[in-house]
């Protein structure tokens, strides 16, 4: 047991440290995780013998649940709304077309059976959101309006369609008596209903449960994500579709302490990606790759330069998407974790196949992440789809990116001009506010008449928030909230808290005592009881 724990610790530490190489040399992070798994595997340096595909499928499914949930949770629906229809078409019709094109290619060129060719196509029909957006985040690649939301929504939502196609074809191959039409109906209907119902219940009642500990709230949501997957699967529905819809609904809801959920599931998602990609590398046998390398390269070339571009052209041309943008979207069709997980399903399925689908898909994903992923920034520059006026990070529901203000420190030394002045008399830069005064190791929550002294440390708000030293809470102003049309001075006569930011209509307002609260405002509040503030 101790040796096993030691191995886990070493693997996680090495994987995280290896991300430094990713930033330095521009290699996709997920590729490094796979390669490390291969190094530790049966044919690697450490010779860890592991070939249990049944356990691997269960572990990978568990990891994929949280990766897909976080993909939906981070989708900014307001940003994605203009491309909702085209993204939905890409993630449904696009997956079916890709499956068909690849299946026919395998049948005509590689001489597989038609049904087995379609299985290979179904397994590789979805694109990998983790691969694409890890590169966009790492390179801070800002794209023209509409591209990033389309890519995020397509790559996040096409896994359920590919999963459903894989299940259907495996059922046909195993000569099961399941009615295909009933299977399709149950997959879609139970998947949608479960995700929407659990999402709406969580949206409306999560804050009302009043879990005082932030950590308990995160664990509770993690359990709901498992429920969103397991419930439809028990009813023969699509669990991945359900958990993705659950993530979208919850991620676009007004929740208290939502920032803690973002940080928690961001960490969980990274951990699951390390687990998933390392395990896939560990499960592979590089010695078997030469047997399938020819087929895998041909499929990769066809998928990259024929099937994916043709699919994008058919789906997006009716929307008059510029040709260069279509080419870039085509290039972003990276294959990754989901495809390999679905390939594992083919191994554990009772359906008989003549080809080593797992290693074919594994090598295709490896080539895709390596070459397409590494060249993604260059292709964006070549096709001129970059636009510094658009922040790709705004496509994500990450509170720290969206709130756009920072906490800065100002120390009042002996000759500082603010010494002995009240805050109301100090001429400060526009949109700056003193949130806290630290004096003699005690925190003071300031007001306009507060006088600053020599040796004070002022914690100030300025555009661009990224702070952990001060605990911030949120208050959403609903339709009948008693603060509507009140000024901040009116709602806080005893100076029990400080409103440091108001989010209104996607804009950030640094308020003062005269600022009036409106319906649908989100107030970011610094409260005394959380910080142990003292009175002046």
How would you characterize this protein structure?
This protein folds into two domains: 51-391, Na+/H+ antiporter like fold, CATH 1.20.1530; 399-531, Regulator of K+ conductance, C-terminal domain (Alpha-Beta Plaits), CATH 3.30.70. Helix content is 57%, strand content 9%. It has helices spanning 2-25, 29-40, 53-73, 77-80, 84-108, 114-123, 129-139, 147-173, 180-205, 214-234, 239-251, 258-283, 289-316, 323-331, 337-348, 357-382, 399-403, 488-491, 528-531, and strands at 405-411, 433-439, 442-444, 457-463, 472-476, 497-504, 507-509, 522-527. Strand 6 and strand 7 form a beta hairpin. The longest helix has 28 residues, at 289-316.
Biggest β-sheet: strands ordered side by side in the sheet: 1-4-2-3
| Chain-averaged pLDDT | 85
What fold name goes in the CATH topology slot of the largest domain? Na+/H+ antiporter like fold
Please state the second-level CATH architecture of the largest domain: Up-down Bundle
What's the story with the biggest beta sheet? 4 strands, antiparallel
Count of individual helical segments = 19
- Helical amount among residues, as a percent range? 55-70%
**CATH top level of the largest domain?**
Mainly Alpha
Terminus-to-terminus distance: 55 Å
Question: What value does the Rg take, in angstroms?
Answer: 26 Å
Large-scale geometry: elongated
> How many discrete domains?
2
């Amino acid at each position: 047991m101790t040796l096993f724990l030691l191995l886990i610790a070493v693997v996680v530490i090495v994987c995280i440290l290896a991300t430094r190489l990713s930033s330095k040399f521009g290699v996709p992070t997920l590729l490094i995780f796979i390669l490390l798994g291969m190094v530790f595997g049966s044919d690697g340096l450490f010779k860890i013998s592991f070939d249990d595909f049944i356990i691997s499928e269960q572990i990978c499914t568990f990891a994929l649940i949280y990766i897909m949930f976080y993909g939906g949770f981070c989708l900014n629906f307001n940003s994605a709304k203009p491309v909702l229809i085209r993204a939905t078409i890409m993630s449904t019709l696009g997956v079916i077309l890709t499956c068909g094109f690849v299946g026919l290619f395998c049948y005509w060129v590689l001489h597989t059976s038609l049904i087995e060719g379609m299985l290979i196509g179904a397994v590789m029909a979805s694109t990998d959101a983790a691969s694409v957006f890890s590169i966009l985040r790492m390179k801070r690649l800002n794209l023209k309006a509409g591209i990033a939301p389309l890519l995020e929504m397509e790559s996040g939502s096409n896994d359920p369609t590919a999963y459903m196609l894989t299940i259907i074809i495996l059922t046909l191959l195993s000569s099961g008596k399941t009615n295909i039409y009933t299977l399709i109906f149950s997959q879609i209907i139970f998947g949608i209903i479960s995700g929407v119902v659990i999402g709406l219940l969580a949206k409306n009642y999560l804050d009302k449960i009043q879990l005082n500990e932030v950590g308990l709230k995160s664990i509770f949501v993690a359990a709901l994500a498992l429920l969103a997957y397991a419930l439809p699967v028990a009813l023969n529905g699509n669990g991945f579709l359900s958990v993705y819809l659950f993530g979208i609904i919850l991620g676009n809801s007004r929740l208290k302490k939502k920032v803690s959920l973002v940080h928690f599931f961001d960490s969980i998602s990274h951990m699951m990606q390390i687990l998933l990609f390392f395990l896939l590398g560990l499960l592979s046998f590089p010695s078997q790759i030469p047997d399938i390398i020819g087929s895998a390269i041909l499929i990769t070339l066809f998928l990259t330069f024929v099937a994916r571009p043709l699919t994008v052209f058919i789906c997006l041309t009716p929307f008059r998407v510029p040709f260069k943008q279509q080419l870039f979207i085509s290039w972003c069709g990276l294959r990754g974790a989901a495809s390999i997980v679905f390939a594992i399903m083919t191994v554990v399925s009772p359906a008989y196949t003549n080809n080593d689908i797992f290693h074919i898909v594994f090598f295709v994903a490896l080539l895709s992440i390596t070459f397409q992923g590494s060249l993604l920034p260059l292709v964006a520059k070549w096709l001129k789809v970059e636009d510094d006026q658009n922040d790709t990070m705004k496509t994500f529901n990450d509170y720290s990116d969206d709130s756009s203000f920072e906490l800065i420190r100002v120390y009042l030394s002996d000759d500082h001009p603010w010494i002995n002045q009240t805050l109301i008399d100090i001429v400060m830069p526009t949109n700056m506010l003193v949130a806290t005064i630290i004096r003699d190791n005690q925190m003071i929550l300031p007001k306009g008449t507060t006088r600053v002294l020599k040796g004070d440390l002022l914690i100030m708000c300025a555009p661009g928030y990224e702070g952990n030293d001060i605990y911030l809470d949120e208050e959403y102003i609903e339709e009948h909230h008693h603060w509507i049309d009140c000024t901040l001075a009116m709602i806080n006569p005893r100076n029990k808290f400080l409103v440091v930011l108001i989010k209104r209509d996607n804009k950030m307002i640094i308020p003062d005592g005269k600022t009036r609260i409106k319906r649908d405002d989100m107030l970011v509040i610094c409260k005394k009881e959380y910080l142990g503030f003292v009175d002046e």
